[in-house]
Automatic annotation (TrEMBL):
<keyword id="KW-0030">Aminoacyl-tRNA synthetase</keyword>
<dbReference type="Pfam" id="PF01406">
    <property type="entry name" value="tRNA-synt_1e"/>
</dbReference>
<feature type="binding site">
    <location>
        <position position="254"/>
    </location>
    <ligand>
        <name>Zn(2+)</name>
    </ligand>
</feature>
<keyword id="KW-0648">Protein biosynthesis</keyword>
<feature type="binding site">
    <location>
        <position position="229"/>
    </location>
    <ligand>
        <name>Zn(2+)</name>
    </ligand>
</feature>
<dbReference type="GO" id="GO:0004817">
    <property type="term" value="F:cysteine-tRNA ligase activity"/>
</dbReference>
<feature type="short sequence motif" description="'HIGH' region">
    <location>
        <begin position="36"/>
        <end position="46"/>
    </location>
</feature>
<comment type="subunit">
    <text>Monomer.</text>
</comment>
<keyword id="KW-0862">Zinc</keyword>
<protein>
    <recommendedName>
        <fullName>Cysteine--tRNA ligase</fullName>
        <ecNumber>6.1.1.16</ecNumber>
    </recommendedName>
</protein>
<feature type="domain" description="tRNA synthetases class I catalytic">
    <location>
        <begin position="21"/>
        <end position="341"/>
    </location>
</feature>
<comment type="similarity">
    <text>Belongs to the class-I aminoacyl-tRNA synthetase family.</text>
</comment>
<dbReference type="GO" id="GO:0005829">
    <property type="term" value="C:cytosol"/>
</dbReference>
<feature type="binding site">
    <location>
        <position position="258"/>
    </location>
    <ligand>
        <name>Zn(2+)</name>
    </ligand>
</feature>
<dbReference type="GO" id="GO:0008270">
    <property type="term" value="F:zinc ion binding"/>
</dbReference>
<keyword id="KW-0067">ATP-binding</keyword>
<dbReference type="GO" id="GO:0006423">
    <property type="term" value="P:cysteinyl-tRNA aminoacylation"/>
</dbReference>
């Protein structure tokens, strides 16, 4: 374990500036990242925070030691979108059973998807439904938090809802920099009559008999969206922790409201010290999202030819995502994936020359310590790839770096079946005397480092083609 003190700099949305990262307790660095709402396949935009914070998790483990980092990423398994999906997909089942089917299936798929993208499992992955009511183990739960907020004068009941009273918190709006007065002045939307202020938000709402619900002091109901993360982060990381992450769209209202709930319930000055937000993955300049319909699921990209007419390996998607700095927008394009694939191929071929184990190169760690600057980190890897030769230090360092970043350096192998299929296709073109197409295939394979050799079968006299990996 190296001493990470004062080495890592992170851009903090709270202060809009890069700051030296100082953990509350270097023996237990604590990070919470908002996880998926499990009603449908995750799209590749949803994969961005998972991959970005996986790299940060790996970096923290490197700096503070693998046993000294706690990473919590929740699963949101209570949401009206889930109810709607359950009713649609399993109309014949009781709602609770239907919901269970939807959330289990979707969570399983999510796990498969992010594993294919090379992400480590978080330390804890709590499900919201397990933190609604007071727990036998005494960990924080949503109903108790809401009770505390009411007792402390930060929440009120109105028309079957419990609402957070934003006016009770003088510095509400710090993260998104939307002071209350501004919001009130700018509010054009008709104020819900039961709300004291338009920005007051729901902590608890009553459920109809058909809707899922839990018995609470305010009747049978279900939690609002934000309270779950306040409960689950407190349950595993305590009232104040180090890093809280998610996509840019979560700054307001989700994270702003998490902060309001947690600080007011615990009487603390802050909820987390560093707030990190990734930029959007876009399609033609627009955020990829379910509601716009401009999305590709991770599963589709891995398993079908929907994007660019072919399947994409998880690690190519991973590298493509990391080639852009996490706070910048990414335009999702075939060209970008091809570029990542070519780079990864070069790196892996060079890393294949390693003969001895090596440490993760400090130059790469240094680059990543500057707010996860992947671009200079990758430039350094390309430099190592250029210098790599059988058994030299560059090859070994590169291999260690790729393993650190979550790329599978042990399967830097050629897809032999695919090569054989391309060779058969080329021989067919040759028989048709379509030299242009035949040459195209030869050159394409050469571009992938595969050299074809044409010869004759001594017995039959027929053309046979063999191949080898050219280094
Ligand atoms: P959601 O399921 O919409 O709550 O999103 C789960 C996570 O994915 C959140 O951290 C979002 O901020 C993030 N996210 C959603 N869409 C995108 C996108 N197009 N690009 C980057 N992050 C996204
Ligand atoms: Zn959250």
């Amino acid at each position: 374990m190296s001493d990470g003190t004062n080495r890592l700099n992170l851009h903090n949305t709270l202060t809009r500036s890069k700051e030296v990262f100082k953990p509350i307790d270097p023996q237990n660095v604590r990070m919470y990242v908002c996880g998926p709402t499990v009603y449908d396949f995750a799209h590749i935009g949803n994969a961005r925070p998972v991959i970005v914070f996986d790299v940060l998790y790996r970096l923290l483990r490197h700096l503070y030691g693998a046993d000294h980092v706690t990473y919590v990423r929740n699963i949101t398994d209570v949401d009206d979108k889930i109810n709607a999906r359950a009713l649609r997909d399993f109309p014949e089942l009781p709602l609770n059973e239907a919901i269970r089917r939807v959330t289990e299936k979707t969570a399983d798929q999510f796990h498969k998807d992010v594993a294919a993208l090379g992400c480590l499992e978080p330390t804890f992955e709590p499900r919201a439904t397990e933190f609604v009511l007071a727990r036998a183990d005494g960990k924080a739960d949503m109903v108790s938090l809401i009770q505390t907020l009411i007792e402390r004068g930060h929440a009120y009941e109105a028309q079957g809802e419990v609402l957070f009273d934003t006016a009770s918190m003088p510095d509400y709006g710090q993260l998104s920099r939307r002071p209350l007065e501004e919001q009130q002045a700018g509010a054009r939307i008709a104020v819900d009559v039961h709300k004291k202020n338009p920005q007051d938000f729901v902590l608890w709402k009553l459920s109809s008999p058909e809707e899922p619900g839990w018995d609470s002091p305010w009747g049978r109901g279900r939690p609002g969206w934000h309270i779950e993360c306040s409960a689950m982060s407190a349950a595993y990381l305590g009232e104040v922790f180090d890093i809280h992450g998610g996509g840019l769209d979560l700054i307001f209202p989700h994270h702003e409201n998490e902060i309001a709930q947690s600080r007011c319930a615990h009487g603390t000055h802050t909820m987390a010290n560093y707030w990190l937000h990734n930029g959007f993955l876009q399609v033609e300049g627009q955020k990829m999202s379910k509601s716009l319909g401009n999305f590709f699921t991770i599963h589709q990209l891995l398993e079908t030819d929907i994007f660019g007419g072919r399947k994409w390996p998880g690690e190519v998607l991973r590298l493509a995502m990391l080639m852009t700095h996490y706070r910048e927008p990414i335009d999702f394009a075939v060209r970008k994936l091809e570029e990542a694939e070519n780079t990864l191929r070069k790196w892996k071929r060079a890393a294949d020359l390693a003969t001895a184990p090596a440490a993760v190169p400090d130059e790469m760690i240094g680059a990543l310590c500057d707010d996860l600057a992947t671009y200079p980190a990758f430039q350094f890897l390309s430099q190592l790839a250029g210098e790599a030769a059988e058994g030299n230090a560059a090859a070994s360092s590169l291999k260690a770096a790729l393993a650190f970043l979550g790329f599978d350096v042990f399967s830097a192998k050629v897809d032999e079946a695919l090569v054989e299929r391309r060779i058969a296709g080329r021989l067919a073109f040759i028989r048709e005397k379509n030299w242009a197409e035949a040459d195209k295939i030869r050159d394409e394979l050469l571009g992938h480092g595969i050299q074809l050799k044409d010869g004759k079968d001594p017995a039959t006299g027929e053309r046979v083609t063999t191949w080898e990996v050219k280094r």
